[in-house]
Amino acid sequence: MTRLVFLKILTLAVLPLLIIGGFTLYFILPAPVVTEQAREQNTTLSEEHKPVQHTETIGTSVQGRDITVTSFGDGPTQLLFVGGMHGGYEWNSSLLAYDMIEQLTEQPDMIPDNVTVNIIPTLNPDGTYLTLGTEGSFEYTDVPNPAKRNASGRFNANGVDLNRNFDCKWAPKSTWRGKVVSAGTKAFSEPEAQALRTFVGKVRPEAVVFWHSKANNVYASECHNGVLAETITLMNTYANAAQYGKVESFDAYPITGDAEGWLASIGIPAVTVEMETAERTDWLRNLAGVKAVLQMYTKF
Question: What pTM was computed for the model?
């Protein structure tokens, strides 16, 4: 008998015994016990890797429409991005905000572990509704005439320019491109401005970015004590990444009661991002700007 034949016979004889023995051990030996502690550890690890996202209502407009904020992450460093201050007149600022919410929903790993990102897509929902006839999230195709701006949609339902209603150099009348506009009866007289003030007081953001259009620049903010040093860094970071111009002091015409100036007065860096046109969101540019700001506030 050759060695090869002998090995084949041995294999045919031993293999069934190994299979039978394996099944026997499987049914005889007790199954491994998963302790409650192990289950809790596995659950905790699983939850730690789930993206934290929630949307809440932080106030209502003059006409009772919800003002919402969508938050991502649970880090101690709070960042705030705001669109739709001027409602339907700057609908692209809200569209950009909604697109950014979708981006972070699909790619939550963009957010550093130490950061919470908060996005208010539309601070002036009444002005947006006046222009678009829709509430909440919308698409570019929902805009009736993207090339035509509706000036009436800039103001809230009381006819107030919300970006003149905050407590920095406030005056009852202010200006917008040479026109006199209402700033409300007093600082924070409008429910939309109150909603932003309440949320800022709640989370105390490290920095705030407002999206507007159109000037193709990023503007720093100041009130009575000049521009904060970190505001300059924030402006440069966003502008360089998004390829916008940089302006440390807005001097095109006098402005009173702006939200960015109010934030500067309470020690919070804030910038205004003015997109290049009123018809687009400059998506890739602003995505690069947001990523740069997130990187700026990342702690290794």
Answer: 0.84
